[in-house]
Amino acid sequence: MNSHRNDSRKEGPLAAAPIIELQEVNFQYPGAEVMALSHIHLTILRGEFIAIAGTNGSGKSTLCKCLNGLIPNYYVGDLSGYVQVAGLIAENESVSSLSRKVAYVFQDFENQLVRPTVYDEACFAPLNYGFADYRERADRALAMLGLESLSDQWIWQLSGGQKHLTALAGALSLDPDIIIVDEPVAQLDPYHARLIYDKLKLLNEQYGKTIIVIEHHTEFIADYCSKVVLMDSGTIRWVKPVQEALSSVEELEALHILPPQVTLAIRETEEQQRPDGIYPVTIPQAVDYYRTRLPLFPLQSIDEDAHAAKVSVPSIQSPATTLVQFDNVSYGYKTITRTLHPVLRGIELAIHEGDRIALVGNNGAGKSTLLKLISGIRRPNDGLLTVCGHLTKHTSPETLSDYVSYIYQNPEEMFIEDTVRKDVEYFLKARSSEDYRPFVDEVLERLRLTPLQDRDGRLLSGGQQRRATLAIGLAMQPSVMLLDEPTASLDASSRREMTAMLNQLQGRVKATVIATHDMQLVAEWANRVIVMHNGQIALDTDQQSLFGHTAVLELAGLIAPQIAQLSLALGLRPPSLSVKHFADRIRKLMGQHRSQEEADSIASH
Amino acid sequence: MQAIKQSMLDKLSVEQIKIELMRTAFGRQSVLLSRFDPRILIVWYSFFAVAPWFFHNKTILLGMLVPMAVLTLSSKVSPLVLIIMGIGLVSEIMYILFGSLLFGGSLEAVWPLATLTVKILIISLASIAVFSSMDPEKLSDALLSMGMPAQFSFGVSYGYRMLPILIEEYHNLIHSFRLRGRSPRDKDFLRWRSLVYMGKIAVCAFYPLILNTAKRTRTTVEALEVRGFTYALISPDAKRLKLAYLRVKPLDFVFLGCSALYMIALLALGRIFVL
Known about the structure:
Shape of chain A: globular
CATH topology of the largest domain in chain A: Rossmann fold
Shape of chain B: flat
Oligomer: heterodimer
Mean pLDDT of chain A: 87
Order of helices and strands of chain B: HHHHHHHHHHHHH
Radius of gyration of chain B: 23 Å
Number of helices of chain A: 26
Mean pLDDT of chain B: 85
Distance between the termini of chain A: 57 Å
Strand content of chain A: 15-25%
Low-confidence stretches of chain A: 1-14, 306-316
Number of helices of chain B: 13
């Protein structure tokens, strides 16, 4: 039924009329030297699902702000050209008339929520615009996103994913034709990001909304979008259908956008480049591709190399010094109804020298709390926790900070001074270390912060902020380094850079624990993986075997890297964790098959 | 002794204070006073916040104190708020008394001081009872309906929304200072060095808090623009719709009437017994 509606919508007379049309649009922010947008021509049809990709500062957000009238009504600047949105000529309209047609969910969506409860939030916009049926509108928007059960919740009680949906509901209640979502994946874990995308897909298919996402995570683009707009320094480089767009591997990589791993893998395993340059971009497409090309599908391949590699990983039983010991530790906090809300239950865990632990699990599983317990800013309600010979129960966080440094998820909460350098020095100064300056210089240099050292940490870019917090941690010369989501909300190139920095930590610290949702980081960096679920340790293993435990992954809401998913779908066990490893295995298998065939044909002759 | 000291310290922890604050703000309990129209409550409160200053007769003052105490108890106010009020009152009496003794007064000053204290107590209890049982959202709407600018009443409810987030962030910033700082090592008299250290952090943590908040406001302001906040400022429809739910019911008049009757009776009683 829905698909029928869908088809008729796309083929109907409305489909011909573009819902968004930009011609020769130029924009310059006041005081800026370069054009933020130049010579933009763009046509978007009703019911499309568009991804706008590009590096930071390429004009993606600026373009979207032209559509809801924030430019030029709110940001005064030089705007020229023709902008038509949902039948309105933007020039003649105000922010309020345009934003009734165009909903906008900001990248830092939490700051867009201005009301105390979910229901109030959904009512806010229709109430402001004086719609008498504002309650029905709010109810409808909440129902579309399946948020009815949350409607009485306080905003501060929601998880990140729920907040994002609430922001979306607040925008949907105006019944807009177009929905713009700015980098949904950046602030959410992959599991919740997928939930958001599923909702967007529903809005697109069932309610006929035109969706525009600003996105550089190509696996999401491949799964959900129909077209890609690639932007580069204020211009549109091209607009292509999704498969063609994501197959332009070199071009994407030049702009620091990582193409889907499956596309890279197939390009790697094919002997010659395809003339049309179009490759599979999603996992199902890739599975189909290999189904026709590989013999004996599904494969029953057990990779000996991987097994050999596994042995070289320091085994947990090895007699290494224990740095942190959890003995039946439980922790809970009091809620406003004065009841105890358990977060961690009966944790038994030992962290040894040489451990590089990735702590994974869905939101609310207790990952951050575990780190906070080790750092000493939370104390166990039950059980004993020993950190470098100190019982945390009787030790102040100040004393523990001689051994442990804890890097917050939100870098801004670590900038307590007004320059990066002062922040890095703070610990050493407080301990009146003698002549710490050369050491601080070295740390800053190592993390490439020397040119930024006199700037306020708050004003740096996301990647720079993460580096600055890492420098703060390193300057404390800890034995144990704890990091909470160090790669969250970073673009591909900053993320790669961060992973490289984390690899450098080896030798500087005795053990590192990272709480993360970034499975790529887990695959590339960790030597031990701890899966948490519901306040307990569900699995303690190494990263090779982690992605084979599909049941645990599902339970903990984890999504394996695409290449691991593809390996498993093809029957490769243990799954490959890098494109190169995968391609080598496939090439080897194909080679074996070919020599087998040759041998067979010789024999039959 | 050690155990008692520990449990006292636990009760006074930042965490505990945070919970009590949140309970006061978001407890959502249904109490006697929350049933009335917020505008009526504001009118009622403005009388009891001013009236005590015009009476010197302790009979009347004590008579006013009783219903205030009852209403405060019925509002299930957090003990923390009462403790803070208690500390405030005691220290206030103490410093006036010390002042009086220092400048040659005597303990006779206690009696007139008691009058002042009762007045302050009445006003404090009235404020606590009214504002802790009134949902800030309703307060904000009541202010709007009584002609306050929309920006102001929105500020009240936005503050309400932001409060828990700011408290959380403040707490994290304090931890940031502690995780890099060094607390005084030697145990000294009454641990005053530790108190100074914590006090200093508590003040310093405000600066990053303010800067971080300022940075975040940009999106909020844009979102307000997009979601029609400025549009609503000039449109009468929005205000009418928003306030449509506020209605003065018979129960509100009963409440006002009872209060008035009680005051008249009290004034009559005050003429007979002058304290």
